[in-house]
Each structure stands twice: as C-alpha cells, then as structure tokens.
Amino acid sequence: MRYMGHHWTLIRPQRFFYMAERSALVGGGIKLNTLLKQDTQSLRWTPGDMADQQMAFKWPFPMRHKHKIKRIFAFGPNFQPDQAIPDAAKTVPFVSDLVNRMKEEYQLISPTPEKFDSFKAKAIAMQATSPTWTEEDFARIGLNSTNRHHSFPLWIVTGDSEELIQCWVAKRISDKIQRSVYLVLPNVSHFAPLQDPESFNNALNQWLSC
C-alpha cells in the first residue's frame, strides 16, 4: 500500500491520522477479513510502521485478526512526533524529486487528483502531531508470550546515518518491546531502500526467513 493510501483516499475536511489508513481498510471498500485471509507480513517505512503495530496490538477491532499478522519489519520508526528532526528533509537533495513523483502518481490515480496540495498539507500536519505511543501502549506488546498469537518476528531497523529521525529512537523502541530484533544497516540513512537496495533486500530476506 502506498503511504496513507493516498492514491485512493478521498480528501475530507477532517484531519489525517495514521489509523485512518487502517480504518479505511475496515470501513471502506477493502474488507479486512478479505485482506487478511492469509498470514500478513508487513514491511513499513516510517512512520506507517507504527500504524501496523497499532493494528496488531492497540486498535480494538483488529485484535481479533492479530493472529494473522505474521511479522513486522519497521524501518526508521518513531513513536512521538518530536523525535523527528525539524526540517531535516530539506537537507536531502532528492526529497523534492520524491515529492514530485508522489504528486504525479497522485494526479494519475487518486479520485481527487486536483487536491494533492491539500493532501500534502494534511500529511505534514499529521506528522507534526503523531504518532503518540505511551509506556502503556508498549506494555501491551507481549512478544515473549507463550500465546502463539503474540509470537512473531518484529524487527526494528534503522540506518547508521539516519538523518530524519533522532538516532536513539529505533533502539529505544526495540528496548521497549521484548524479543524484538534491533538492526542497524551500514552506510545508509532514512532512504536505505533507495541508497542500497541490495543490502536492504538482504535484510528483508533474513527477516522473511525467521
């Protein structure tokens, strides 16, 4: 799925929030039961990865489906909005190219092609206020449980040159989740899938083989 499902999400007056992506799967045209007929393996690139963890551990409705979430690979995550480095994206040369590509794809596929600027503004506002995980939220995650529904590989991954999220955040998340795996990819930043796809795919293959 694309970031926040922006290709098919209608622009509404309400503010965006990360769990809207999951709400759309349940309440919209895509039925969660259909989507999760088979075990789901989720790769998320910040900060949507926290939405998947919410789906697995926090959100009431999908709790009945969490046994179908087989594994999560969370790359470059944060759990509070102030853990993002202000204006850091402006220092990354190719971010403007990524935004231009998003705009082109949005205009081609979205049911509201003329509203990309509104979508972008709402997404930026959302990132300024979310996610907001608490100690209580992390305490609900029981990967050390004997219950098979809670026992699946959860990897917290970052690059050694992460420039958008404060460098200590990924390790802190891993420390809060028992039995999670903490992995630092060498010589890459927040954009590791673009900078070194071979090494990134090797890490994914290791995760998938767990």
Task: List the topology elements.
Layout: H1 19-27, H2 32-35, E1 40-45, H3 48-57, E2 69-75, H4 95-109, H5 116-129, H6 135-139, E3 154-159, H7 169-176, E4 181-185, H8 192-195, H9 197-208
Parallel strand pairs: 1-2, 2-3, 3-4
Structure description:
This protein is α/β, with parallel strands linked by helices and 210 residues long. It has a single domain (18-91, 132-208), classed as Alpha/Beta hydrolase fold, catalytic domain (Rossmann fold, 3-Layer(aba) Sandwich). Helices cover 39% and strands 11% of the residues. It is built from nine helices and four strands, in the order ααβαβαααβαβαα. Strands 1-2-3-4 form a four-stranded parallel sheet, with helices on both faces. Helix 3 links the parallel strand 1 (40-45) and strand 2 (69-75). The longest helix is centred in the middle third of the chain and has 15 residues, at 95-109. It is globular and about 45 Å long. It starts with 18 loop residues before the first helix and ends with a helix.
List keywords for this structure.
disordered N terminus; alpha/beta; Rossmann fold; four-stranded parallel β-sheet; 11% strand; 210 residues; globular
